[in-house]
Amino acid sequence: MSTTTETPFKVADLDLADEGRRLIDWAESRMPVLMSLREKFAQEQPLAGQRIAGCLHVTKETAVLIRTLKAAGAEVAWSGCNPLSTNDAVAAALAEEDIRIYAWYGQDVDAFYWSIDRTLDFRPTLTLDDGADLIFRVHAKHPGLFEDIIGGSEETTTGVHRLRAMADDGKLAYPVIAVNDAETKWDFDNVYGTGQSSLDGILRATSVLFAGKNFVVAGYGHCGKGCAMRAKGAGAHVIATEVKATAALKALLEGVQVMPMDEAAKVGDIFLTATGMKDILVKRHFETMKDGAIVSNTGHYDCEINLTDLNEMTVSKRTLRDNCVEHTLADGRRIYLLAEGRLVNLAAAEGHPSEVMDMSFANQFQAMMMLAREGKDLANGVHELPEELDQEIARIKLEAMGIGLDQLTEDQVLYATDYSQGT
Ligand code: ARJ
After folding, report:
1. Which of 112, 195, 362, 416 ranks highest by number of CB atoms within 10 Å?
2. How many Å lie between the centroid of ligand 1 and the Cα of residue 365?
3. Which atom of ligand 1 is nearest to the CA of 130?
4. pLDDT for 423
5. pLDDT per residue as tens digits for the range 262-274
């Protein structure tokens, strides 16, 4: 661990800081909502006195969030939430900005938890998660911190599901805001963000042509739907697999072929799991895949592709390109695994574009503000951000893009609540 002045940190290489600052500047130029919040609250310092521990992918967009939290008065400590998603240049830049940052690309499991623990040394008053590993860590190993913690926030679907299960079990010891559930998060980040960044990750790792390929997306939730839409736009024939009838029906009516994975495994050229569930691709699927099949995951955890099965079937392995490993099976067929089965959009590309993260992180910022303001009065459990906030975030976003809206007249407002008129 090193220090600049007295701020402790651990990153891969401080010499990358200049490159990191350029990346963050680029992201800032595309994140008008977060930048307007920074400007608005820099004077007032509503987060003064708050110590925020964050556990979320260290990207250029996250750096813009961190700078904004700091500008509003918070002290910040940070770790990454995935061993393969840290941008080392961005981490170096943050270390030089006096952020207690513990993150580098390619961490092993011990380093991952060591980093989280260092952010907890600083006794946070607020926690900010993507995937809930930090919250789980506080509950499992550091319950003494409950005294200081007012509340937390959670970025992603998988984390929110787990926290709801924990709350239902009466085990969640402080209030948590489900940032994922804000419309300006899930309806943009999960759909358009995941759609573009996952294709970006697959392309950077393989450079294959999408046109004419059978692209199999497992899971037709918001993320799967975004990936299907973009793969279709690139000319692929898209197949979705589902367990939920309504989701399968939506896929079908959107022009996507639906079939069980046992059938899709035989015809797919490129596979992408987006389910949040484990064991989506297992031995019996690898057994029937075509020679040359590409398998990847965009879900939060790396359990969707069963790597134990794949490795057991593999007779030889070689890295062909960054984030692309060729597994040769006993019968000579080759399967290409991308980014070790970890989320391909962050491990092999740069995550969602800044324009989308602008809204997700405006919600994160507002969640921290809400907890600082009224967290002490919130019950332990999972809470949502107020709906008006979605409209405000969307309005600022549109304004920044120079897009105008119509306004209802008084007469129209009356009409909206008038139930006496018919044909
Ligand atoms: C930081 C990112 C980025 C990015 O909001 C997204 C989500 O729900 C995730 C699940 O782990 C990833 C997160 N995400 C996507 N892109 N976080 N910076 N550029």
Report:
1. 362
2. 15
3. 11
4. 76
5. 999 999 999 999 9
